[in-house]
Structure formats: C-alpha cells, structure tokens
Automatic annotation (TrEMBL):
Its main location: membrane. It comes from Denticeps clupeoides. It is a single-pass membrane protein. Belongs to the HEM-1/HEM-2 family. One of its GO terms (biological process) is cell migration. This is Nck-associated protein 1. The lineage of its organism: Eukaryota, Metazoa, Chordata, Craniata, Vertebrata.
Length: 1057
C-alpha cells in the first residue's frame, strides 16, 4: 500500500525534494573541491603566516572552518537519509534507474555521521599546513584576548592619552589583524586544533592558543542559530584517543575556568568599551579630521565592541551560568549606540578620510614600496610587473579626484596582491615572501589604506555588522534588551540604537540565496516599526503624566478654590472662630516650587528627566533607511501625541451619560491650555511641529466626529446643552435671566445635579467658544435650529387644526364679541405658547453663544471681525435676498447678530410638507403669527408669568417669546418671500387688540399678571429691527406700558419687603 501511494505521488516527490537533494549534491561537490585544493596546497608546501601573507592565510583558515561547519550542519539534518532515499526511489520509478549521484551521496552521508571524527582522520595529511597557519596567530590572538584592566592600563583606543601624538597616523605591522574578529579567530583555533590535534601534544605554542580559546568561550556559532558547544565536543573526541588524557584534563580545567571567569571578564570588557567608545566618538565629533590618522582606532573599536556583543548573545541562552548577572547587560544599548555613532562619523566624513589616504598612498606608501621593490635581490618578471603596477596606481592618485567626486576602485589591486601572495608563498618560489616579511607587512598596510578610500561601507560591515540580531537566537535577546533599555531611565537615551541596528539586517543576505531577502527585509521592517512605536508610546506616556501633573497645578488656580481662603480672611476680620482648632492650613498654589534642598527630587522632576533622555533618542536621527523604506522617528511621536491629545481632551470633559454630568467649559479650557503648554515644551526636546498637532487635533474637535469616528467635545457639549440644560428649562426648572445673561436654577422640589448659571454665564460661554471655535459653534447652532424646526413643524400642525377659526380671527380683530366667540373655538392654545417659549429659550441660548463667539473672535482676529461687521452694516436695502443671506451667513459665523437668522432660514426651508402649495405654506405662516398673537392674553392667568425687574424677565421664560416671534417671523417670511414688516405690524395689531381686552376683564384670576404680560409688547418691539415704538403707540397706549412697569416694580418691592 505504501509503495502504491509513492507510485501515485512520485512526480510531486521529485518536484518537492529536488531542491533539498541537489543542495546535498552541491555540498558533496564542494567537499570534493575543498579536498582537491587542500591536497594541492600540501603538495606546494605553501607558507602561511597571518602577519605576512594575511589574505592567503585568512582565506585558507576560513576555507577549513567553512568546510568543517558545513559538514557539521549536514549531520544535524535529521531527515537527510529519508530525503535522499525517497528522492532516489521516486527517481527510479520515474526514470527506471537511480540518480547517478546517489551512491556517492549516500556514502558521504554515512561517512559523515560523526563529522569531526571523520575529518580528524581526513586532515592527518594536512596537519602541518594547518598547524603552521594556526600557530602564526600566537602574535595576534593573545594580544586581542586581554582583560579590561590590561586594556585600561595600555589606554587602548584613547586619542587624548598622548596629545602630542594625536595627529600621528595609527600604525601597526599587522594592520588587518588589529580589527580581525575575535570570534573568527576562536573558530580557527578550536576547529583547527581539533582537526590537527597532534600539534597540541608537540607544540607548546599550539597548546597555549588552544587553552586560551577554551577559557574565553563555552560555545561557538556555526551558522546563525546553530551553536557548537566546545568543551563537550572536544572532550568526547579526545577521550577515546590514546595519549590524550592530559588534553582531556586541560579541556575540563578550561571549561571550569570559562564558566567561572569568562562572564565577568567579558562584562568588564564591555564596561571598558562603553567609556572608550564614548570618548572616541566625542573627540571625533569635535575633530572629524582625526578620522584620517586614527581610522584604525575606529575600526578596532567597532570590531572589539561587535565581538563582545556577539559573545554575550551567544552565551546568554546557551550555557549553564554560575553568575547570571554577568550575562544580563542592561547597558548594552549604550555600547551599541556608540558603535552607531562611530559608524555615522565614518559615513558622514568619508570624503575627509578619502583625502587623507589618497595623499598617504601617493606621497608615502608608493615611495616606500618602490624602495622595497628596488632593494629586492631577486624579482621575477611577473612579480615585478605586479608590484610596479601597485606603485604606478598609487602614484597617479590626487586629491582632485576626491574633490571631483570620482569613484575609486582598488579591488583589482587587492586581487593582484592576493595572487602575489599565492605566487610567493609556495616552497619553490623564486621570490619567497617568508624571506621578505617587510614586503608582506608593507603591502598589508597599503591594502588597509586602499580600503579607507574605496571600501568604507564594506569595512563597516566587516567590523561592526550585528545582523545576528535578526536570527531566532538574537531576536529574543534583541527585544528583551530593548525593553530593559526603556525601563532604565539612564539608558533610554540610547534606545534609538535598536531601530538603527535594523539597518544591518540586509547585510547578512547573500546573492546566492535571494529568496531570503524578503523574509529578512520584512523582519527588519517589523522590528524597526515596533521599536520606534514603543519609544513613541513611552514618550507619549511620560508627556501624559506631566500633563496630568500640570493640569492638577492649573486646577489649583481656578477661582472656585479661593472661596475657602476668602472665607477664612472674612472670619478672621470679624474674629469669628470657625472650624476645629489645629486644622491644617490649605497649601497655596506655588508651594511645590519652593525647594528647601537641592537634592529633593519631585515626581515632576523625574518625569522631565526621563522625557528629556528619551526625546534625545527620538531626535537623534531625522530618518533612517531600512530595506529601501524610510522611517522618521519624530513622526511616530507626533502621531501618538495627536491620538493621545484627542483622547485626553475628550476625557477631560468628564462626560457621564448616566448622570449627565460634564466639566464646565472654563475648567476644560484651563486643562486644555495646561496640556498645550506642556506639549509646546516638547519642542525643546524634539524637533517636531507641535503647532501641526494642535491644528489637527483642535480642528477635529470642532467637528461632530473626529477622523476615527469618535465623538468630539463639540458633539458632547452640544448634546449636553440640548438634552440636559435646555430640557430642564422646558421642564420649568431653569429660567433665562436677561439681566445676568445666564440661565439660572429655579427653586423646585427636586434639586438639579448641576448649577445652570455655572455652565451658561458669559465667561463659560466664552470658554465654550474658545474650545469649539467657529466651526463647533456653527454645529451647535445647527443642532439648536434642528430642534426649533421640529417645534415649528408641530406648530404648523396646530395651525392646520385651527385654520378656519384663525382665518376668521385674522380679519375680525376689531370685533371684540366675535373674537371672544372665535377664541373659545381654538384648541391647543397653551401648547402653541409653550412651543413658542421653547423656541424663544433656544434662541436666547444661541444669542448668548453668538455673543460669546463674537467676543472671542474680536480678541483673536479684531480686524477681520470689524471688516465683516462693516460689510454687514452696509448692505443696501435693495440688495437681492440671496446675496444678503450670504452676507448674513458670514456675519453669523463671526458671531454677529443679523436681522434675519440664516441658520434658522436654512433649517425651516428644509421642511417640506407634502401636497401643500407655496401659497398654502405662506398662509399657514401668517396664521401661525395670528395664533400666537391671539393666545398671548392667556399668559396673564399663569402665576409664573409675573415679571421680575431684578432678572428683567419672567420666571416661566415667556420673555423669550419676544425673540421667538421676531426670529420666526423673519425666517418664515424670508422663505415665503413675504413682507416681514407688514406681517409683524399685523401681529402687533392682533396682539395689542387681544391684550387690551384683558384690561376690561373683572376676573382677578384671569388678569392676575396682566401688567407683566403687557410688557411683552414692549419687549417684542425692542427686540425687533422691523418694528418701532411709534408703531406700538398707534396700537397700544404707552401710558399702559408705563403704568405696567410701575406696577410690577412696586409689586417686586413689596414682595421683597
């Protein structure tokens, strides 16, 4: 059954396993080539010395380690036998024969089951060449593997330790060895001496290198996440070899030493490097010209720091630690930051380094090399041609090439030197490099100098690439280090180093494996985005905490908090003893600024310190490029501040839908200003445009919903004023007091949860206008008008119900008996008056809002407001109504009062009644005014209709009828193109006629507040731009008004007495 299934799926098996199978074939072919090359090297008896023929020796050792690593990785693939077996079976079923590579491949898989053991046997003939190459490291590796104290005593990497030699070029006989990776050397030593282990017993120098490497590290990185545990593997290999008991004991001792001391030694190295790199970066930032002579120091510093970071990553999760503190470095971000700073200096001042080394190559190196060549006793023709080309290439260089931006390319020269090393390192060479070490050392120095001209980017990758952080083993530590960095305030200024490290990731891709690019690129983008987002969130949280503290301090300065102080002062003056003795005095605002001790640190101080540190990091680079994507750290902060500011403003309204509680506009404005002051101070830390944040957020708050579809302060306050304050006015719990220009609570059985005056007086309405702005106030007006239009719609229905009676009353106002009879036929009289009063209340509130808006705009844009006002006041009477309405709309947006309210016109004109002609609509509008006019006398019987001179109005808000009648008439007759003045004259005639009749009434209940109602006529005329007192005098004797005023004032005096 299994074979039948394979028969069906054979083509799929071949297709899916081909990539893996042929990768194994590639490994086998690579192995064949390596073995062939190693045999050739042995046959030629090649001379290896890392300090002389550096490139040849380095590449030879790299080849050995790569070969070893590859075979070890192959042995770690658990399914390797299944893959090649299954592929070959499918191949047999398809083609009738096995794949031609299968027998050799199968044999290789079996042979390399234990790769190191097999390779130890394989490398017996290559032992001398390999051991010679490794032993040449005795001049390099021990010097690199020193303790931090030895570095400190030698003042390693310090430019200022010897000021007199600061301008001298940093020189060494082994230039490329100075920045050679310690990790690479340890791999060479460990794997090299495992393969040629005989040298450990015969050569003390080899044993010394071996033990030093084993004491420094416990594991090596084979490839990315794959780790090789040195001591266990070496012990397992040597324990079965005869005569290796001493070596096994050495391994055990080194393992114990590594576990006990390596962690602390590397910790101290990182500590030293932090201060050394900081000094180096600071000096070079001040004097970038030193990058020329001291370039070697920069690349040494980068290489040393890179090695220590990689060592920590490798060991943090892969070994049993005796002291975990040595493997947790909370200051690693600082070291990475200084590495990035040095890298930035090299990239920024690359032309400075090019100028220096172009002159160095042409003026010094070419001369010295020429002398060395001239002094050679033997120089074959081929070698002579190559070295002459070196001299000619360097001599032809000039500074002008740098100034002209010419692109340099010395790769051919470096390849020629590599060839020359190969020619001169074989045993039978006429010109042996072993006999001319000075030539080798000089050429190594020249090659370094050429790299300073054309390969600075490649040098940075070679010495400071930390792309290991993208791998699984690195990513875990990467994110953990970042979180530790943010949690430690002193380290948060270095947090930008983590996003900057994401720019390294693409350097670990290879042109032979292009499919990895997208995966690694996406990983680098997601990590960079995550880091910048977290940094911005942290900064945002700190700013929010500062804002909260400042809002609390601003709240202490609100007028409401001075009441207790005033009360205490008054009681003290009158010598009244109130309260308990010994009651602590309330601290006055500003006490928090008085410091008795400089060491005293408040919470606000800590927040500002933490913010300044983090903002330094956010502001460190304007942008960074990761995989062809540009990231701008400041934009992350701006974005988060916008979102938080929006949420904070809405949150500070403290709107509770259940209890209908909301913050006073003045208190919210104080908090918002305190918040904005803090946000403005952020500009001192980061170069962001905070005005843009204000514009985006505050303009959104003037709309009904913000860009996320969430409610704004405009919608919250509009809903509250309409649904809470004005609804309570309609219920008779609140009255509008014209004298105070505010809505005031009336004494009722059920006390309200809020004081209306504290939300509607002049200062509160101005604060509301400041917060909502013209757009928000326009939305408030439109919402108010919508409520008015719904009331007018209901009024029209009542008019339609009484249309016949009202039509007769309109023409019979001079017939008293008939009017009385007709009036009795009217229905819903009280409803008409109540609805008109509600309209008047809403219009009175809008008037307050418009006046506040005008006051605010007059302060902010006085010239523009005065221009609009002048424009409005000088509209010719004969102007077309559409043009006039446009001017009124402009004026209304600026808070100016208009004869005809454009918002009301728009709201009422949007009402469309079905099956009613325009003429009928006009008639209904006229009859509505008639209905109101003839209904006014009924107000006199209401107890609450009494006029109060103190508030300049009536407690049941009927004084608001004046505004309602004028505004509704103006709007309706503008829509229906009627004469507003004529219709108001008609209204005045009807109203005065109806009110004069109650003067003849004898029933005291019906006429109890007759004088108070008379005053409505005066209010209507005073409110109207279309009516005059002369017109009123012709309809209603002024003496009655005068007597009415006298009576209500007299009544109020007697009531108060």
């Amino acid at each position: 059954f299994f074979f039948l299934a394979l028969q069906k799926e054979k083509s799929e098996i071949l297709k899916n396993l081909a990539l893996y199978y042929f990768t194994f074939v590639d490994v086998m072919e690579f192995k064949d080539h390596v073995c062939e090359l190693l045999n050739t090297i042995d046959a030629c008896q090649v001379f290896f010395d890392i300090t002389v023929n550096f490139d040849l020796t380095k590449n030879y050792l790299d080849l050995v380690v790569t070969y070893t690593t590859l075979m070890m990785l192959l042995s770690r693939i658990e399914e390797r036998k299944a893959i090649i077996g299954l592929y070959n079976y499918a191949h047999e079923m398809t083609h009738g024969s096995s794949d031609r590579e299968y027998p050799r491949l199968g044999q290789m898989i079996v042979d390399y089951e234990n790769p190191l053991k097999r390779m130890m046997e394989e490398f017996v003939p290559h032992g001398k060449s390999l051991s010679d190459a490794l032993i040449s490291l005795q001049m390099v590796y021990p010097r690199r593997n020193l303790s931090a104290d030895q570095w400190r005593n030698a003042q390693l990497l310090s430019l200022i330790s010897a000021p007199s030699t600061m301008l001298n070029p940093a020189q060494s006989d082994t230039m490329p060895c100075e920045y050679l990776s310690l990790d690479t050397m340890e791999k060479w030593i460990v794997f090299g001496f495992i393969l040629c282990h005989g040298a450990l017993n015969s050569d003390p120098a080899a044993l010394s290198l071996w033990k030093l490497a084993l004491q420094s590290s416990s594991c090596l990185c084979l490839f990315r996440d794959e780790v090789f545990h040195i001591h266990k593997a070496a012990e397992d290999l040597f324990v079965n070899l005869r005569g290796y008991n001493k070596r096994v004991n050495d391994i055990r001792e080194c393992k114990e030493s590594a576990l006990s001391h390596a962690g602390s030694m590397h910790r101290e190295r990182r500590k030293f490097l932090r201060s050394a790199l900081k000094e180096l970066a600071t000096v070079l930032a001040d004097q970038p010209g030193l990058l020329g002579p001291k370039a070697l120091f920069v690349f040494m510093a980068l290489s040393f720091a890179r090695d220590e970071i990689i060592w920590l990553l490798r060991h943090a999760d892969n070994i049993q630690k005796k002291s975990t503190d040595d493997f947790i470095d909370k200051h690693i971000a600082e070291l990475i930051f200084y590495m990035e700073e040095l890298r930035a200096h090299v990239r920024k001042y690359g032309p400075v380094m090019q100028r220096y080394y172009v002159q160095y190559l042409s003026g010094f190196d070419a001369v010295v090399l020429n002398e060395l060549v001239q002094n050679l006793s033997v120089c074959p023709e081929d070698e002579s041609i190559i070295m002459s080309s070196f001299v000619n290439t360097m001599t032809s260089l000039s500074v002008k090439q740098v100034e002209d931006g010419e692109v340099f390319d010395f790769r051919g020269m470096r390849l020629d030197w590599f060839r020359l090393q190969a020619y001169t390192s074989v045993s039978k060479a006429s010109l042996g490099i072993a006999d001319h070490r000075e030539l080798g050392k000089m050429m190594n120095t020249i090659i370094f100098h050429t790299k300073m001209v054309d390969s600075l980017v490649e040098m940075l990758v070679e010495t400071s690439d930390l792309s290991i952080f993208w791998t699984r083993i690195g990513a875990r530590a990467f994110e953990k280090m970042f979180q530790q960095c943010l949690e430690l305030p002193s380290q948060s200024r270095y947090s930008i180093s983590f996003p900057l490290l994401c720019t390294h990731f693409m350097s670990c891709t290879h042109e032979l494996c292009p499919e990895e690019r997208h995966h690694i690129g996406d990983r680098s983008l997601s990590l960079c985005n995550m880091f910048l987002d977290e940094m911005a969130k942290q900064a945002r949280n700190l700013i929010t905490d500062i804002c909260t503290e400042q809002c609390t301090l601003s709240d202490q300065l609100l007028p409401k908090h001075c009441a207790k102080t005033i009360s205490q002062a008054v009681n003290k003056k009158s010598k009244k003893q109130t309260g308990k003795k010994g009651e602590p005095e309330r601290e006055k605002p500003g006490v928090e600024s008085m410091r008795k001790n400089r060491l005293l640190v408040t919470n606000l101080d800590k927040l500002h310190t933490a913010l300044s540190e983090l903002c330094f990091s956010i502001n460190y680079v304007p942008n960074m490029v990761v995989w062809e994507h540009t990231f701008t750290p400041r934009e992350y902060l701006t974005s988060h501040l916008e979102i938080r500011f929006t949420k904070s403003i809405v949150g500070m309204t403290m709107y509770n839908q259940t209890t209908q509680e909301i913050a006073k506009p003045s208190e919210l404005l104080t908090s918002v200003r305190a918040y904005m002051t803090v946000l403005q101070s952020v500009e001192n830390y980061v170069q962001i445009d905070i005005t843009r944040v204000f514009n985006n957020v505050l303009l959104q708050q003037t709309q009904h919903l913000d860009s996320h579809g969430e409610p704004t302060i405009t919608s919250l306050y509009t809903n509250w004023y309409l649904e809470t304050l004005l609804r309570q006015v309609s219920n008779g719990h609140i009255a509008y007091f014209p004298a105070m220009k505010a809505f005031v609570n009336l004494p009722t059985e059920n006390e309200l949860t809020f004081n209306a005056e504290e939300y509607s007086d002049i200062s509160e309405m101005r604060s509301l206008s400041e917060l909502l702005g013209p757009y928000g106030m326009k939305f408030l007006s439109e919402s108010l008008m919508w409520h008015i239009s719904s009331q007018v719609a209901e009024l029209k229905k009542l008019v339609v119900e009484n249309v016949e009676v009202l039509t007769q009353m309109r023409t019979s106002f001079d017939k008293p008996e008939q009017m009385v009879a007709l009036f009795k036929k009217l229905t819903s009289v009280d409803s008409v008056l109540k609805r008109m009063t509600i309209i008047g209340v809403i219009l009175s509130f809008r008037s307050l809002a418009q006046e506040a808006l005008r006051d605010v705009l007059s302060c902010h844009i006085p010239f523009l407001v005065s221009s609009v006002e002048d424009f409005k006041d000088h509209i010719p009477r004969e102007t077309d109504m559409k043009v006039a309405m446009n001017v009124y709309e402009l004026s209304s947006a600026a808070g100016l009062p208009c004869e005809i309210d454009p918002a009301l016109v728009v709201a009422l004109s949007s009402q469309k009644s079905e099956n009613i002609s325009p003429e009928e609509e006009y008639k209904i509008a006229c009859l509505l005014m008639v209905f109101v006019a003839v209904s006014m006398p009924t107000l006199a019987s209401n107890v609450m209709s009494q006029y109060s001179p103190a508030i300049e109005g009536h407690c049941n808000n009927i004084h608001c009828l004046a505004k309602a009648i004028n505004q509704i008439a103006a709007a309706l007759f503008t829509i229906h193109k009627g004469s507003i003045e004529d219709r108001l004259k008609e209204f005045l005639a009807l109203a005065s006629s109806s009110l004069l009749k109650i003067g003849q009434e004898t029933d005291k209940t019906t006429t109890r507040n007759r004088e108070s109602v008379y005053l409505l006529l005066d209010m209507i005329v005073q409110e109207s731009p279309f009516l005059t007192m002369d017109l009123l005098e012709s309809c209603f004797p002024y003496v009655l008004l005068r007597n009415a005023y006298h009576a209500v004032y007299k009544q109020s005096v007697s009531a108060s007495a």
